Amino acid sequence: MSAKKATSALISVFHKDGLEPIVRKFKELGITIYSTGGTEKFINDLGVDVVPVEEVTSYPSILGGRVKTLHPKVFGGILNRQDNESDVAQLEEFEIPQLDIVIVDLYPFEKTVASGASEQDIIEKIDIGGISLIRAAAKNYKDVLCVSSMEDYGDLLEIISNNNGNTTLEDRKRFASKAFNVSSHYDTAIFNYFNKDHQQAVLKISETKGQVLRYGENPHQKGFFFGDFEAMFTKLHGKELSYNNLLDVDAAVLLMNEFKKKIRLLRF
Fold it and tell me: What's the predicted TM-score (pTM) here?
């Protein structure tokens, strides 16, 4: 069956905005919540029961918070295949709880770099546990729903509210796609930060904000524009732009540039 009813969730997030309705819905649905550190305190302060991850792992958060969730009892709960008899048996043998939903966001690496913070502060914003949880949960989308951004909280809340805590395979795969987008963008930002000093002959670009065009090269195709079109041009009226409209704009701008070059030559 592709539909699965969630009975447990791991929540470990940097940003708490928008989390409260989800936590309260989990409580209403009887979903057991596991958490760490500041997120655990946030949930407790809402009056909602939460199981500290250290009770599962028998290890406290160590190394100044660098190691909290990196443990077989956490990743086993995420990566086990629920239709695999050996996996199910090992969860029982090692007393590993099944984790059906994983809600994680990442330390704000790009914002920390942009703020002009010290190198040490920037290094500490390279997330290890969070990125590992995201990759593990997204990999096992057949059994686990991975929520990797606070922007998806509303979508999650709607799904579990409308379906009594059930998620479909389509839901889980769609969230997995979003999760790998988050993880690849994050790693691209980290690589580009380090590559400023070493200048490897590598180009890595991750552009996550695109404008959907009216259609692509042909009416049945999709088209997207990445960049700030409004910063370059002012649209006065007319329909939404298509891919071909942008090609025409590009050709017109190049043509105008040719006239400018010829005018300069005539002046000399």
Answer: 0.78
